[in-house]
Design a protein that fits this description.
Layout (H helix, E strand, L loop, with lengths): L3 E11 L5 H5 L2 E10 L3 H6 L8 H14 L5 H15 L5 E8 L11 E8 L3
Antiparallel strand pairs: 1-2, 2-3, 3-4
Helix pairs in contact: 3-4
Length: about 120
């Protein structure tokens, strides 16, 4: 399957991290989501019901990022993948990237991030 819907650069203020300050002070998190599904029916029919509603996926990601607190961005990425797969039956596979730009590791760093790929189980 090579078809995919890409939502890139979703940016939220949230509280995720191991350090105490990370649980009280919001910081920026960036998320990319790639949804793998057959887009041909939607393309041929010009029909939203044959694909995924981008706004619903965005809302799911936003809800998870902003309303929960995780120690690890790995856990945040897993929660996003799990919920989107549960909510979007047409999606066969999902790739989730989570970036934490303002991480403090003792020196210059663009961001810390994780990337996970999960497929629907049959």
């Amino acid at each position: 399957m090579t078809d995919r819907v890409v939502l890139s650069g979703l940016t939220f203020q949230a509280r995720h991290g191991v350090e105490a300050r990370e649980k009280t002070e919001p910081q920026r998190f960036e998320v990319d989501v790639e949804l793998h599904l057959d887009l041909q029916p939607a393309g041929l029919e010009d029909d939203l019901t044959q694909t995924v509603d981008y706004a619903l996926v965005y809302g799911t990601v936003r809800q998870i990022v902003e309303s929960t607190t995780f120690n690890l961005i790995e856990a945040l990425a897993e929660a996003i993948a799990h919920e989107v797969l549960a909510d979007q039956p047409r999606v066969r596979e999902i790739l989730v990237r989570v970036r934490k730009p303002d991480v403090r590791l003792g020196g210059p760093l663009d961001h810390a991030g994780v990337e996970i790929r999960r497929a629907r189980t049959r």
